[in-house]
Amino acid sequence: MDDLSYTPAAEGKPSLKDRILGMNKALLAIIGGALALVIVAVILITLLAGGGKTSSFSLLEKMYNGKITSYETAVVKLLNGADKNTVSNILKIMKKNDDFKEDYLESNEESLALMIERFEDEYGDDFKVRIRNERDSQEQIDEDDLDDYKDDLKELGKRYAALGKSLSSLKSSEKKDLAEDLDISVSDLNKLIGYIKDLGSVLKTAKVTDGYDLEAEMTITGSELDEPETEYENLTVLKVNGKWVSEFGYEALEDLYRTLYRFLG
Fold first, then answer.
1. Are 214 and 138 in contact (CB under 8 A)?
2. What pLDDT is stored for residue 52 in this prediction?
3. Cα separation of 189 and 171, whole Å?
4. Cβ(233)–Cβ(216) under 8 Å?
5. Can you give the C-alpha Rg of the chain in angstroms?
6. What is the distance between the alpha carbons of residues 143 and 157, in angstroms, rounded to a whole number?
7. b/e 179-208 (16+ beta carbons within 10 angstroms → b)
8. Tens digits of per-residue pLDDT, 49-65?
9. pLDDT at position 56, please?
10. pLDDT, tens digit, for every residue of 205-257?
11. Residues with Cβ within 8 Å of residue 169, at least 6 apart in sequence
12. Side-chain half-sphere of 247: how many Cα atoms within 13 Å?
């Protein structure tokens, strides 16, 4: 899941992401750590609301228009399956640690705020972004590629499961020391370990049964524009365990794993 779909707005013209976030196409092919502004922004601004594969792009619109400012909310909304509750429980415990809260949550929220500021500078304080799905431009993902996504989720699940197993094997004194380091109770640590193992199990057994590459039409208006600006972005949705979710929900789980491993591994 290292390849992010990307289509420039026009030949020779930098895309909206390039111009607003100062990115280049090479960066779009990389998912970096939670502290990398431009990579975090890629994850944040390409969210797709759960629901049907051609559901409205309401979450994407809210992100672009500054209506969602909580990274925790964004990550949980990315996931439209059983794993979203597990992720929510992991974040509720880990954010009790000030360093995790600053590194993983607050830094990403600052990135989102900076993105909105750049929109305001580019388009005006009254800017609006409208997102619509181009229903005639959807392409079903073939079985081989679906199997690749399933394998990727299984491998990610194995890493979560291994982390949970490693933490479970700690002695009582080691768990106490780790809990103190994290500024959480031993009870919370044991719950956290259980949630990490649960998430591993969900990902290892995930069923990916369908998928589509969709095209989103983005129309931007604002006082700094002489006329509305329209661009297009490609988004991938997958049917995982019977639920339609954005591919980037699981890219966010990769990022979460790396952060958890840094604090717990």
1. yes
2. 58
3. 13
4. yes
5. 19
6. 21
7. beebebeeebbebbbebbbbbbebbbebeb
8. 345 554 446 666 777 78
9. 40
10. 989 999 988 887 888 999 999 999 988 877 788 888 888 777 766 777 888 89
11. none
12. 24
Q: Where are the domains of the chain?
A: 16-264
Distances in whole angstroms, Cα of residue 86 to Cα of each of 91, 105, 126, 245: 9, 17, 37, 16
Q: Which residue has the higher pLDDT, 4 or 243?
A: 243
Assess contact for 234 and 47: CB atoms under 8 A: no
- What secondary structure, in 3-state letters, does 189-248 show? HHHHHHHHHHHHHHHHCCCEEEEEEEEEEEEEECCCCCCCEEEEEEEEEEEECCEEEEHH
Q: Give the C-alpha distances (Å, rounded to integers) separating 174 from 146, 169, 177, 178, 261.
A: 41, 10, 5, 6, 16
CA-wise closest residue to 14 among 28, 24, 3: 24
Range among 67-81, 128-142, 210-224 with highest mean pLDDT value: 210-224
Residue type, 189: L
> Which of 52, 94, 48, 64 has its CA nearest to residue 252?
48
Q: Are 50 and 62 in contact (CB under 8 A)?
A: no
